[in-house]
Amino acid sequence: MVESNVNIEEVANKVIGCAIKVHKALGPGLLESAYKECLCYELIKAGLFVEKEKPMPLIYEEVKLEIGYRIDLLVEKKLVIEVKSKEALNDVDLAQTLTYLKIGDFRLGLLINFNVTLLKNGLKRVANKIEN
Question: pTM to 2 decimals?
Answer without folding.
Answer: 0.89
